[in-house]
Structures are given as structure tokens and as C-alpha cells.
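Retry 2 of 3 after timeout on previous attempt. Resubmitting C-alpha cells to design endpoint.
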């Protein structure tokens, strides 16, 4: 009997000890000077571990990028799916079928670390959490996070969902420099999520460490207590990362030590070398992109007001004049083209009396390989975009005009040009700056339209 009792006591002891052993996770840390990216301290920084809710830094980075490129607006109302509503805590408590603005989901994911909000964000951007996770991984690779792969938007433990202290430190630095307009979200002790007011999971460090202003906490049984923290004192900014903390208090104390170490080792003055921001693409998701365009072709921050009658007349005449200047083939009557295209996109009011034509039809030049279809004051801008190759010049001109009307905000000052190539007629917009050409392509690609940037020369 004594042997049995001893055996039972051993089994009970093992059962009680097992959860504590399961919580233990490998420890890793990194400290960098945020201004230059110089590593000031590291330990197990390249060991692949469970990131837990540090994942949401990438979730939010992708969302910020999607808002910037016009895929979605901060005021877009997102419908909560059953999957998002069913995510385990930490959560906001969203209900399936509920609609909530994207800006509130961002706040909930950043401050409350809400898993339901993170999943809803991923579904709003990419149609499904799985597709969004693939986009997260592509973004991580573009940022140089070579040992990171994502399987979900919230960070709950899943096979293959792994990162490193080095990669997450890099992630934090990019968040700070690439999207400074949103970075203040991570320093809020509390915030309104449209549903309720929530407190920051990192409020203890934010409230106790001088200069701390972010960034993100994380915890799961497999990961332990994780944190990427950033603090600024004078001209210095330090980022410290901890994976595998034993408790919230232990993690915060260790991060405070690492930040102190960083401030003691970093020079007081140094030239800031911002991380290079990569050019990201949404990826091949034609079905989802079409749906997004149907709902919100432009961010609501850019109000769309219908032009007045005078503006409509000017726009209609501008189109007709531009088409009248095109050297069209003899087989296609010029007036028919102008009338049909202008009528297809605008409903102009009657032309005021006394207005005279400002352009006359140019004589056809069958030898010229290039046709200019709009006068432009490019001011020395030598970049352009190509929107496709077509079998006839008329088709290329038609698509150019359609595209100009769809994307007037970035192409209104561009020169429309059709160029003959051995394989067909190239439809180009020229006379753009490099930045405006890149922006035009991002916005057209967000509408699932082809676009290639053309450099000088």
C-alpha cells in the first residue's frame, strides 16, 4: 500500500509540474539602435520561435500599406465573419454579422491585441485569413525577415508560424519609420474601439519606463511572454525584443534592462539611416480585388463630388478636342469616335453660346510611329507608365482615355501617348514624376488593371 501511495504522489506531482514546464520557452533577445539599425546586444536572436501576438505588428503593417495604396479606407465598414467572431481571447467580443469601421479594428489589434479584430482585418484586406497570411509572409521576405513565416493574422500557436528576435526587431523598426503617421497608436494607454474602451496590454511598461512609446506584447503557452519595445530619450531611440519571458513582470524588467543597456551603448548623436522601404504588391487575388473596387474604389478621405455643369462641359469638350487631335486611320471617322467615347463616360450639359473650338483636327501622318493624344505641361518629368499592348491604335487610344477618366487624380497631368511596336500598339502615359508613376501603378493595380512603370530614356 505504501508503494502505491508513493507512486500516486509522484504521478500527482508530475501532473502539477507539467503545465509549468509547458510554459517555459526558449529565451531570445536583441537590442538595436533604431536610428541606424546597429545591433547593440543579441542572444539566440536567429532561433525560430513562436512570436505570439507580436504577429499583429505585421498584420497592422500590411493593413497600413493597403490603406496607403487605396485598397481600402479607414472608414470602410468591415462585416465580421463567424470565424473572426469565434477567435479565442484576447478579443474585443465582436459578433458575427456585425459591421465595424476598419480604424476601430486597427486600434483593437494594436492596443487590446484582439484576436477577433486581427482576423477581421486580414479577411477585409485579402478575402480570407489564409490569403492574408500568405501576403504577410511575402511582406516579411521583402522586409528582409528571412526566417519568418505566418499562418494567421493573430499569432495563436500554429505549425509553421514562426519568427525570430532579429526579425521582429526589424519589424518594429520598419513600423516606426515606414508608417510614422500610425505609430502613435502603440503608445496609447487606452483607446476607443467603437464598441468599448480598451486598455493597452503594454501599459505597465509604457507607464513605468521613461521614454517608452510602444510597440507590441505577445503571450501564448508555447511562446512565453514576448515583447518588442521602443523608447526615445533625447536624440536616441532604442528597440529591444524579448522572446520567452517567464511572466509579465519578469519580461518587463528584462526589457527595461535591455533598453538601459541600449541607451548606455548607443552614441548620443549619429546620422539616422532609415531602413529601405520595399515596393510591395498585393499579390494575385483578382476575385477579391474586384470586390474591393466595387465597394470602395477610392479612400473615403478623398471626397468624390459631382462636377457642376460648367465643369462637365469643359471635360466633355476636352475629351472631344483631344480625340479630334488624334491622327486616326482613314477608315475610322474622327467625329464618330469623339462622340461615342465622350458619350460613353460623360453626360455633358448643352454647350454655352459663344464658346469656340480651341483645337482643329490634325492632318494624318502615316509615317509617324508615335501619336500624341493630349497636350501636357510635364515640366521636365521623364517617367511614365504602360497600361498594355493592343492590336489597333484605336483600341489603345480608347483604353488610354478610359484609364484617364478612371484615375484622374494621378493621371490628370500626364501625356497620353500611343507608340507603334513590332508586336502592336503600346498605350502609355508619360510626363510623370517617379513618385506619381509609382502611385498611379499602385492605384491601377489595386483595381486589378495592368500597369508597368517606365523609366527615363
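Retry 2 succeeded. Sequence:
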Amino acid at each position: 500500500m505504501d508503494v502505491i501511495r508513493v507512486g500516486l504522489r509522484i504521478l500527482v506531482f508530475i501532473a502539477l509540474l507539467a503545465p509549468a514546464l509547458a510554459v517555459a520557452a526558449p529565451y531570445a533577445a536583441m537590442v538595436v539602435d533604431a536610428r541606424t539599425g546597429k545591433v547593440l546586444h543579441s542572444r539566440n536572436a536567429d532561433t525560430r520561435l513562436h512570436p505570439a501576438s507580436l504577429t499583429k505588428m505585421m498584420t497592422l503593417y500590411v493593413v497600413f500599406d493597403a490603406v496607403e495604396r487605396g485598397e481600402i479606407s479607414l472608414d470602410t465598414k468591415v462585416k465580421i465573419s463567424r470565424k473572426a467572431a469565434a477567435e479565442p481571447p484576447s478579443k474585443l467580443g465582436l459578433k458575427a454579422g456585425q459591421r465595424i469601421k476598419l480604424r476601430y479594428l486597427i486600434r483593437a489589434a494594436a492596443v487590446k491585441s484582439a484576436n477577433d479584430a486581427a482576423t477581421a482585418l486580414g479577411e477585409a484586406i485579402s478575402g480570407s485569413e489564409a490569403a492574408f497570411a500568405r501576403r504577410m509572409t511575402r511582406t516579411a521576405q521583402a522586409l528582409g525577415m528571412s526566417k519568418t513565416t505566418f499562418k494567421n493574422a493573430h499569432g495563436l500557436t500554429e505549425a509553421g508560424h514562426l519568427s525570430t528576435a532579429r526579425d521582429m526587431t526589424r519589424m518594429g523598426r520598419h513600423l516606426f519609420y515606414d508608417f510614422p503617421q500610425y505609430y502613435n497608436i502603440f503608445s496609447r494607454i487606452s483607446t476607443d474601439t467603437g464598441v468599448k474602451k480598451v486598455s493597452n496590454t503594454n501599459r505597465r511598461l509604457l507607464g513605468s519606463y521613461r521614454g517608452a512609446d510602444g510597440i507590441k506584447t505577445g503571450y501564448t503557452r508555447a511562446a512565453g511572454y514576448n515583447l518588442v519595445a521602443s523608447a526615445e530619450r533625447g536624440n536616441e531611440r532604442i528597440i529591444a525584443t524579448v522572446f520567452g519571458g517567464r511572466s509579465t513582470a519578469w519580461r518587463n524588467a528584462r526589457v527595461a534592462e535591455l533598453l538601459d543597456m541600449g541607451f548606455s551603448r548607443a552614441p548620443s548623436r549619429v546620422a539616422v539611416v532609415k531602413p529601405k522601404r520595399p515596393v510591395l504588391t498585393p499579390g494575385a487575388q483578382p476575385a477579391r480585388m474586384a470586390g474591393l473596387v466595387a465597394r470602395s474604389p477610392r479612400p473615403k478621405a478623398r471626397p468624390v463630388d459631382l462636377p457642376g455643369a460648367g465643369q462637365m462641359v469643359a471635360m466633355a469638350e476636352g475629351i472631344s478636342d483631344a480625340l479630334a487631335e488624334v491622327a486616326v486611320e482613314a477608315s475610322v471617322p474622327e467625329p464618330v469616335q469623339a462622340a461615342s467615347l465622350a458619350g460613353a463616360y460623360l453626360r455633358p450639359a448643352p454647350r454655352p453660346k459663344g464658346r469656340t473650338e480651341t483645337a482643329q483636327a490634325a492632318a494624318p501622318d502615316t509615317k509617324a510611329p508615335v501619336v500624341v493624344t493630349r497636350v501636357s505641361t510635364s515640366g521636365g518629368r521623364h517617367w511614365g507608365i504602360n497600361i498594355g499592348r493592343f492590336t489597333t491604335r484605336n483600341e489603345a487610344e480608347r483604353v488610354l482615355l478610359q484609364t484617364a477618366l478612371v484615375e484622374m487624380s494621378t493621371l490628370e497631368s500626364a501625356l497620353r501617348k500611343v507608340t507603334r511596336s513590332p508586336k502592336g500598339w503600346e498605350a502609355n502615359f508619360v510626363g510623370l514624376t517617379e513618385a506619381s508613376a509609382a502611385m498611379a501603378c499602385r492605384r491601377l493595380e489595386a483595381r486589378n488593371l495592368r500597369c508597368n512603370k517606365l523609366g527615363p530614356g
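Attempt log closed. Confidence is low (pLDDT under 50) at residues 12-23, 284-299, 302-368, 371-380.
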